[in-house]
Amino acid sequence: MAIVIRNNIQEITLQLLQFVHLATKKSASCGVILAPCKNMNPKTLEQAKLLMSNNDASLSVQFFYDDPNQVLCAVLDNGTMGNTHYASLVLKDFLQDQHLLQGQLIVSSFPESGNPTKSTIEKFMLQAIRSKGKEGNIHFFTGANAAASVLIVDTDDIIREFIKTRLELKGYRVHEAKDGQEAYHVFVRELPGLVITELNLPIIDGYQLIRKIQATNSYEGEVIVLTDKQLTENMSRAYESGAADYVTKPLSISELEWKIKRLTKNN
């Protein structure tokens, strides 16, 4: 049964933690979706629950709503990160159609993304609350709130989104930029542990971006070039600029993930 509850952050954290513990006792995994929403009521919750249940009969879905913080919580028995992500796409469409969504959908799976401790669940909840007012995208949360942070720089929206989704599923915190100038601003603000950049970038090209990153005092991260430039001279120039590795397009996501894992492990 879907219910409406009223709690502060600490209380809603304990409430969600209880749901997660009960779900993981019944099955090997538990998926959770948090979504900032307005004007939720029991009828709307039941509609969302019915929609998600009909979409995947293998998932048992429990909904509850934190009215003071205006956060909708969905707990999915047997929810892996993969099928919870798919379920979040269905929920996102429903909430947007009803004009209820107020921020980002934050997705996680336990114990796949870490142990569901009180501290972990509270960080999870705060990430959802702080996303209010942002565009209604889907983001992933892990117990450590990402094994490492990564900045993806590419003019191609599809490539950025594809890499972002794959990395977030593996626990990385991902930032994006579509040109060299925006990338450098994001880099200075976030200081990601790894930068993946195309060389063909407007305003500031990839070579200039790499040099600016490497000139940053005390920065210990790495840069991977992901580009359609396949000539030896381009590769040599990238390495001379300070790149740690070089991957050519068309993209092999397995190769890229292996190089990312190797570099972040070394760091």
Oligomer: single chain
Shape: elongated
Q: Which stretches are poorly predicted, pLDDT < 50 over at least 5 residues?
A: none
Distance N terminus to C terminus?
A: 47 Å
Question: What is the residue-averaged pLDDT?
Answer: 87
What is the rounded Rg?
Answer: 20 Å
Main sheet: strand order: 1-3-4-2-5-6
**The CATH H-level homologous superfamily of the largest domain:** Ribosomal protein S10
List its salient traits:
2 domains; Response regulator; 9 helices; Bact_response_regulator; 5-stranded parallel sheet; Rossmann fold; 6-stranded mixed sheet; Sig_transdc_resp-reg_receiver; phosphoprotein; single chain; 45% helix; elongated; alpha/beta; 11 strands; Alpha-Beta Plaits; CheY-like_superfamily; 267 residues
Word description of this protein:
This protein is α/β, with parallel strands linked by helices. It folds into 2 domains: 138 residues, Alpha-Beta Plaits; 118 residues, Rossmann fold, CATH 3.40.50.2300. The chain contains 9 helices and 11 strands. The strands form 2 sheets. It has a 6-stranded mixed beta sheet with strand order 1-3-4-2-5-6, sandwiched between helices. Strands 8-7-9-10-11 form a 5-stranded parallel beta sheet, with helices on both faces. Helix 1 packs across helix 4 and helix 2 crosses helix 3. The longest helix is centred in the first third of the chain and has 18 residues. The N and C termini lie far apart (47 Å). The mean pLDDT is 87.
